[in-house]
Amino acid sequence: MTNRYIVDTTLRDGEQSPGIAFSIREKITIAKTLDTLGVARIEAGTPAMGREECRAFEKIKLTCQQAKIIGWNRMNRSDISQSIGCGADIIHVCVPASDLLIREKLRTTRSQVLKTLSACAAAIHAEKRELTIGLEDASRADWDFVVLLIETAQQLGATTLRFSDTVGIMSPSLCKATISRIPDNIDIEVHMHNDLGMAVANSIQGLRCGAKYVDTTLFGIGERAGNCNLEHLLIATQGQLDFGINLDELQWHQADLKPIIYKNNPGRMPDRISAH
Amino acid sequence: MAKLLKANKRKRGRQMVTIIDRTLTTFNTSGMTGQDLNHFCDLLFTCGVNKIELTPDLVNRLNFPLTAAGLKQWLGERRFFLTRILPESLASAGPGTKEPKALWKLEPNELVEKNIPVGKLHSCHHQKIRITGLEDLMTRDYSEVFKALLDSGIDTLDLCPGNHHHCATAIALEWLSAGGQSISCGFANHHHFPPLEEVLMGLKLSQPDLFTGDLSVLSELRDLYEKLSGQPVGKMKAIIGTDIFKVESGIHVDGVLKNPNTYEPFSPQSVGNQREIVLGKHSGRQSLLYKLNDSQLSESAAHSILKHIKFRCTQLGRNLSDRELRTLAREVQNDKQIYC
Lengths: 276, 340
Known about the structure:
By secondary structure, chain A is of the alpha/beta class. Chain A is built from eleven helices and ten strands. In chain A, the strands form two sheets. Chain A has an eight-stranded parallel beta barrel with strand order 2-3-4-5-6-7-8-9, surrounded by seven helices. In chain A, strands 1-10 form a two-stranded parallel ribbon.
């Protein structure tokens, strides 16, 4: 069986799901469980959100024994300083890759994106932290710019490149064709959303085509229709891919975490038929 | 990326495919009224289904005129497909004529279901086959499997992959992309068939010029499905979940308010839903200004209100309602006036 690694983003992208909000104690409980299960990397939050998030982050860092803790950041020096200050093992910088996001959301240009990214990378290396770079909305980006961003990521010393299907529009064949084209001199991580119900299938294709890491959340929580569901991914890849996580143990622990994750949102619980 | 999408489209060619819905075959239909049944079928056809699979019992409830006049014996225990026909005479009416309402007709379902290894297909003598199972296809070289199926010489080949591995939509769409002509689905992952709404949206996004269904009826179909099946649909269910267009995080609200395409793969209206900006732990200033409709709110007041919102939402584990927000905003601003 091939070894691959889970990057769990329940505490960052998962918590961004409307109506889901964790207290510090709840975040620590979830992180501790993920660490015990064998999750390789835990994206514990966005320290730039404020003091509470930083406190949670610091405690998670102290609690987890195995997993590396990722701090998620916009392409912004002040956000990055917060993550460094919280003691994150990995500083992840999210870079809008599609012209749609660059033009409409950031109201900037491709060249400015590259400049800002370089400045962010320098700040991270100055503090001797591991840098990973995420290409937001890569599935709708111009391929030439994606290639330029990948080359830049390598030059800037990023250890991992996250390829994000931010609005969940990819198909398995498109995933295969795309991920296979990324040069193998940087570790690839795939981040798939479930808008068309294909997050698990797309993640599998990404992994089969060379991705070393895959992003998941507990119960598949996340924006809109959610992210790749960890349990579903393990079910679908049983006997084929080894993430170092036992499915039975995950299901056992998920039962305990369900009341924390859904609190006052029983309508969102996945035991309803057809929840993602 | 756009080049790749175009290449896939070229490969697929311009062909119409058959979408079969099987939802009704697994319902407990004892309490279902004829009106609801008719409405459900009508909505399925509207959203792009070509054939609806029915049991003899359901056929009886549709009140076809011939049923009472001896069709019952012909029906027997077999299953049927309900399809739509547009009478040519009406369809070819001149410009300005009101579009004719399609008529329904029955045809026998002659598909034989097989859950067998693809390699053994050559031993099948049936010329109309529905392949079921294939749950683990995504972890195998599925394009080779599809090639073997398409080269098997079988006349009519329908695929109904199981969804126990949560990959049925992907398998269905890849099958059609590879040249498959027929796929069987169930609404809202019913009975672990490929979720109909996901397959239809996948087709709409990949073949917008060929897809003729109207997916804006999906919300109505969901409500009727919940009533008929007695099973609630998950609020985050892809395509039809009631909450999938709620936006909370500051980054996403900022993007969506500038241009909804930034964080929406398709418009809420296209599936009969609505976008809603909600306030919670991850809200930013833009969301607050939008919700309070108050562009004059000072930086410090906004910061203070947001702090309270984040605290309350973390405690409650849910979003704040508009009423709760107004109360909280009033209280925070009053406090500021008293203590500042």
